[in-house]
Write a structure and sequence with these properties.
mainly alpha
Length: 75
């Protein structure tokens, strides 16, 4: 039982770390949508903005999939 508890807390910590990365990327994306003095967005280049959004979505999907497939969270 104690070993199961350690595994659960380790898995939970890893998920929180991954979600923290996603959260930081989302903040960067949101800040990048702000307008500069000349009216352009900071991440005004579409590939940069699009690549970041794709990366965020991929990371979110991976974390969600790991949680769903985990026997630690759903025995």
């Amino acid at each position: 039982m104690e070993e199961d508890n350690k595994v659960f807390h380790q898995a939970k910590a890893e998920v929180w770390e991954k979600l923290a990365v996603v959260e930081q990327l989302m903040r960067i994306y949101k800040l990048g949508k702000w307008k500069t003095e000349d009216g352009n967005e900071i991440l005004h280049k579409l590939p940069t903005c699009l690549d970041l959004r794709v990366l965020i979505n991929d990371l979110q999907n991976r974390v969600t999939k790991e949680i769903r497939n985990s026997s630690v969270f759903f025995p």
